Amino acid sequence: MAAPNKPSRPPAKKAARSGAKKATRTPAASSQAQVAAAPALADVRARIDGIDRQIQELIAQRAAFALQVGKAKGKLAAAVDYYRPEREAQVLRMVVDRNEGPLSDEVLVHVFREIMSACLAQQEPLKIGYLGPEGTFSQQAVLKHFGRSAHGLPLGSIEEVFQEVEAGNADFGVVPVENSGQGTIQVTLDMFLTSALKICGEVELMVHQYLLSRSGRLEDIERIYAHPQAFAQTAGWLRTNLPRAEKVPVSSNAEGARRARGADDSAAIAGESAAHVYGLKKVIMRPIQDDKDNTTRFLVIGRRIFPPSGHDRTSILVFIHDKPGALFDVLSPFARHGISMNRIESRPSHQAKWEYAFFIDLAGHVDDEAMKQALSELERHVAQVKVLGSYPVAVP
């Protein structure tokens, strides 16, 4: 016999009671979850503290081994004799190759650069000349390439940077050579026509130009100080927003910032670091350069060529004979030996009227066999070949 049917609760009431039960449990469950989460957070922080201790111990070990490397090299004359840019480039490339996140390549390269900079400075800090005053993009390039343990020497001009390195007052110099939007910095190329210095490295720096002033008010600005390159990089924005403002060229953007801090009607175009150094405000919060990917390439100059790093660039200066097919004679040896040319630019040679020299960047090191053969062939067809340097390609 079938069981008699029992009256059932209305579905709505059942759902309501069920919901009520859940509602009464929620505060207690939430409280229990918070209690359970507290020890977990403390445990995570304890693990972080333990990792920090390990990192610090390993950095100390690395510094001790760096001192042993210095002792193995024997008694050297100065800090510059301990510096090996090819080795640093190899270390940083391995950092990039090992990186699996979550930190970016750029962050990790910066961390390891500072560790290497501090370890090297145990012997003696490197002295690096750059276009000053403090707060220039050249100073940022110094910090990016040599780290904060190097001693920066702000100088008044690119010519002075060359002179101080040649005299031995600076171990290396950092000078701008080209901008992605505005092309070559000609004074730097012209210095290589007569200087015996060598290129030892390169730095690529993303350049963000800001409009800075004492008041931070756009309507106050009647004149703007900046390096001519900065005016060129921001020409479109200035035409649209400050067409009547007087443009005053200065030797560096940081020098412009130094001048602009003296009056409310003055402004400067410079990097964010110049704003901090000279106490200026951003008139416009975003960068004002016309090219959002605005990048400047800097060269590291020194007194010698270093061994290969495995991924290098060679820069040469070629003085040609005035004859038909002269440029073909310059380029063909590199094509025959499978050497890629990254850049070529002509400049007046300053040796005779209408005579030119070619600045050429090539993939590879001067010690590579293919490069040796190509340069040997080239010398037979031109007036002079001057190897400016072989150096590690900038680590991205």
What would a concise description of this structure say?
Helix content is 43%, strand content 22%. It has 396 residues and is of the alpha/beta class.
Please write out the topology:
Elements: H1 11-72, H2 85-98, H3 105-120, E1 127-131, H4 137-146, E2 151-155, H5 158-167, E3 172-179, E4 183-184, H6 186-192, E5 198-206, E6 210-213, E7 223-226, H7 228-233, H8 235-241, E8 246-249, H9 253-260, E9 266-270, H10 272-278, E10 281-282, E11 295-302, E12 312-319, H11 326-336, E13 341-348, E14 356-363, H12 369-379, E15 384-392
Parallel strand pairs: 1-2, 1-3, 7-8, 7-9
Antiparallel strand pairs: 3-4, 3-11, 5-11, 6-9, 6-10, 12-14, 12-15, 13-14
Helix pairs in contact: 1-3, 2-3, 11-12
Q: Tell me what the CATH architecture of the largest domain is.
A: 3-Layer(aba) Sandwich
CATH topology category name of the largest domain: D-Maltodextrin-Binding Protein, domain 2
Radius of gyration (Å):
30 Å
Q: What structural class do the secondary elements suggest?
A: alpha/beta
How many domain units? 4
Order of helices and strands: HHHEHEHEEHEEEHHEHEHEEEHEEHE
How confident is the prediction overall: mean pLDDT?
88
Tally of DSSP β-strands: 15
Which range does the strand content fall in?
15-25%
Please describe the biggest sheet, giving its number of strands, its sense, and whether it closes into a barrel: 6 strands, mixed
CATH class of the largest domain: Alpha Beta
Distance between the termini: 85 Å
Instruction: Give the CATH superfamily of the largest domain.
Output: Periplasmic binding protein-like II
Low-confidence stretches: 1-24
3D shape: globular
Work out the helix count: 12
Protein name: Bifunctional chorismate mutase/prephenate dehydratase
Keywords: Amino-acid biosynthesis, Aromatic amino acid biosynthesis, Cytoplasm, Isomerase, Lyase, Multifunctional enzyme, Phenylalanine biosynthesis
Region (Disordered): 1-32
Domain Chorismate mutase: 35-127
